[in-house]
Structure formats: structure tokens, C-alpha cells
Design a protein that fits this description.
The protein is 29% helix and 29% strand. The chain is built from eight helices and 15 strands. The strands form three sheets. Strands 8, 9, 10, 11, 12, 13, 14 and 15 form an eight-stranded mixed sheet that branches. A four-stranded antiparallel sheet has the order 2-3-1-4, covered by helices on one side. This is Ribosomal protein L11 methyltransferase.
């Protein structure tokens, strides 16, 4: 069966109402995404405890799926009329029938991080059985190792962990960095994320990789400092969280920051230089990984 997919850019104020009305009018599914995802204008909407939170992106993209026989143009027009808005420009494309499971799996091959570190989905054979292999499948939480930000953080852990460190993965997503740290010799690893689904995914992934890590929502994270603090999130929350992340890092400990665009390096270095002696940034595909040593 083939489908029609509409991508409709709208303002934050109408995204939810339009999505609900499209479902009422006969759409098979509707999702709301960031219209600027993957660009410098990408917007972080999830806040931290005691910080303001937004529900949707200021410039949202409503993505609706229709049966191939549906009159998608008429449905979209009716949905806009029902919410009292003018129809915005949108794109409509045909999606051919697919074996969606096989298609999804085909997009995730083993990823070589270094000579000794691989990320391998469970449906693949390990390319190097003697290497450190992270068994990780794509899921509801961010972090499969394919994105440059995750790749950069994994490379840093591979290059710098000496063994026995206690590691904090702030914004753990799938738990990949905490799990990798343990498999690379860290003594303990703790992950924290604001998304309960990420905590579930991280625990499942840790069990799958036969390691024990502790994963928490921010409000349940125990007090304490860490030898290494890794935060692979985005520049906006990193701007706000500097003092807190510094407080979680031991004197002489290391901080690792990613989710930062190359053009944001100088600004972020300036912020974190209040507490850390910052190293030269590592850049990959326009994304940066910053690191530094906390001053005593």
C-alpha cells in the first residue's frame, strides 16, 4: 500500500490544533517536528527543572500521512478552515509501499568509532568480535552513534578514559555514552535525562550490553561529583547549565560537551572557561566537541 505525506510549516500557536483537526478529517497519523531541525536555528524545547518549558517549536512542521486514495488537498484545506486559519504552503509527496522494518534496519549498519570500538545493531553480526562492541538498536531515545555529536563523544571517551573513573552522562538519551564508558573501563556510570522514555531505553540498553549503570530523572539524581561529566545535548541548555555541570565535576576532573555547532565554539568556550581550562575543540561535519579540566 502506498501513502501520501504532507509536510506543512506552521506557527507554534496552531500546530496542535491543526494536527488534531487533520486526524479528525481522516489523516492516518500526524507528527509535529522542528521546522529548522538540523540547522543553526534548531530549537531546544525541553527545559530543565525550575526552568520554563515550551510545548512546541516556534516554527513547527506538521507531518501528516494519508491513504493514497485520500483527497489530501481537500483534507488539509478543511482542517485549516476548521481552525480558522489560511492554508499555508506545504509539500505533498508519494511514499511507495515498503517493508518498513527492513527499510529501517537497512539504514543502521555497524558504526566504527575507532580501532577498538564499534556500535552494532542486534540484527547484524559483529564486524570485529575482539573489539569493544556496543549492541544498540535505534529506538525512541536519541543516540545511536550515527550523529557526529555522539560519535565525537565516543571518540573522546575511547581516547581519554584511563580506567576506574566515575562518569556522569547528562542528557543520556539511549544511554550510549554511559554504557560505552563502562565497556571502556570506567568504574561506574550514571545517566540523567528529563525524558522518562530515555530512562527506560537506557536501562534496557544497559541490560542488553550486560553492564550496570544508574539512570535518573534530574530530580532523583543523587548528590555527588564525578571524574568525567559528558553532556551531549544542545547549545541552548548548555548555556544555562554551565554552573550546575561545573558543580558536578571534581577538581581536576574533565568535562565533555557536544551538540554544539562549529560557529558556537568560541561562545561556549568563553562560558565554560569560568570553571575549566578548555582544550582545542574537535570538529566533525559542522559539529563540535569541547572538553576541559576543572580548576581546583
Amino acid at each position: 500500500m502506498s501513502y501520501l505525506q504532507a509536510s506543512i510549516p506552521v506557527a507554534q500557536s496552531v500546530a496542535e490544533a491543526l494536527s488534531d483537526e487533520l486526524m479528525e478529517q481522516g489523516a492516518l497519523s500526524v507528527a509535529i517536528e522542528d521546522a529548522h531541525a538540523g540547522t543553526a536555528q534548531e530549537q531546544e524545547i525541553f527545559g530543565e527543572p525550575d526552568m520554563p518549558q515550551q510545548q512546541f517549536w516556534q516554527q513547527s512542521l506538521v507531518v501528516a500521512l494519508f491513504d493514497e486514495q485520500a483527497d489530501a488537498h481537500a483534507i488539509i484545506a478543511a482542517a485549516f478552515q476548521a481552525i480558522g486559519e489560511q492554508v499555508s504552503d506545504y509539500q505533498l509527496e508519494n511514499l511507495a509501499e515498503q517493508d518498513w522494518v527492513r527499510l529501517t534496519q537497512s539504514q543502521f549498519d555497524p558504526i566504527k568509532i575507532s580501532e577498538r570500538l564499534w556500535i552494532t545493531p542486534t540484527w547484524h553480526e559483529m564486524p570485529d568480535a575482539n573489539a569493544v562492541n556496543l549492541r544498540l538498536d535505534p529506538g525512541l531515545a536519541f543516540g545511536t552513534g550515527s550523529h557526529p555529536t555522539t560519535h565525537l563523544c565516543l571518540q573522546w571517551l575511547d581516547n581519554h578514559l584511563a580506567g576506574g573513573e566515575n562518569v556522569l552522562d547528562y542528557g543520556c538519551g539511549s544511554g550510549i555514552l554511559a554504557i560505552a564508558a563502562l565497556k571502556l573501563g570506567a568504574g561506574s556510570a550514571t545517566g540523567v535525562d528529563i525524558d522518562p522514555q530515555a530512562i527506560i531505553a537506557s536501562n534496557d540498553n544497559a541490560a542488553q550490553n550486560q553492564v550496570q549503570a544508574a539512570f535518573h530523572l534530574p530530580d532523583t539524581l543523587p548528590d555527588g561529583q564525578f571524574d568525567v561529566v559528558v553532556a551531549n545535548i544542545l547549545a541552548n541548555p548548555l548555556r544555562m547549565l554551565g554552573e550546575m555541570l561545573a558543580g558536578r565535576t571534581k577538581s581536576g576532573g574533565r568535562i565533555v560537551l557536544s551538540g554544539i555547532l562549529a560557529e558556537q565554539v568560541d561562545e561556549m568556550n568563553g562560558i565554560y572557561a569560568q570553571w575549566f581550562d578548555m582544550d582545542t575543540a574537535n570538529i566533525e561535519s559542522g559539529w563540535a566537541c569541547l572538553s576541559g579540566v576543572k580548576r581546583g
